[in-house]
Request: fold
Amino acid sequence: MKKFFAAALLVLVVLTGSIAAEAGTITIKNSTGIDLYEIYVSGSGTGDWEEDVMGQEILENGQTLRLTVNGSYSKFDMRAVDGNGTAVDWFEIPGNAKSLTIYADGTVEY
Reply:
């Protein structure tokens, strides 16, 4: 019985470590000139923006926000939406980027 619990604990630790390795934290600075109400992140070229990662947060112009995203992307795309529903997209951001400054013209610094 002890061996079973030890094996189950080992599997749980391995799975938890795998899940943690797949998540990454990115700091995003909003330099778009507008407040952002929605942010979507997906693997480059997937054609699916997935879910809004902002929740109820608003990323005001000039502010920064830390987000946890899927860390297994080699490159990712990001879409931000303002209060009027206007979207700005950024493409092929390196998956290992830790800090981004986003601009309204679709450029990004990392």
Remarks:
- The chain has a mean pLDDT of 81.
- The longest helix spans residues 2-21.
- The chain has one domain: 23-109.
